[in-house]
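note to self — DONT lose this again. spent like an hour looking for the file last time. sequence + predicted structure for the chain T wanted, 159 res
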Amino acid sequence: MGVTPFSAEDRAYMQRALELAAHACDGDGEVPVGAVLVLDGKVVGEGWNRNITLNDPSAHAEICALREAGQRLANHRLPGATLFVTLEPCAMCAMALVHARVARVVYGASDPKTGAAGSVFDTLTSERHNHRVEVRGGLLAEESAALLRAFFRDRRNSQ
């Protein structure tokens, strides 16, 4: 029994996350990561990395999307929601997703250095937490990774 393929809707939401990631890089000079939070078939939050722009170490794409959704829905809990993010969440973002009770995370590129959705840590699925998040990785992974590679290559070349 294999893993169910990603749906057309999954691909569309991840494509939007890629657009936000490109904006982070091109518009704000931030590391290109974008996130889209969906609940009941509607986008309730979007975010892109803004930690440099906002002088806020917690302003990762996932956190920005969670904050927007929380404000929009007037709730800090987001049960049933799915987060689409171009890069595997870090430990900080993973714990925020657990606390928000997000149901599912779909990510693009894996993060072999700090990934907390299975690459380095298994924060989202840990049995130590009172909530576990379903995790699916690899959706538009090459596109996500290409954005990141280009960003860091350009950054190295400009120094």
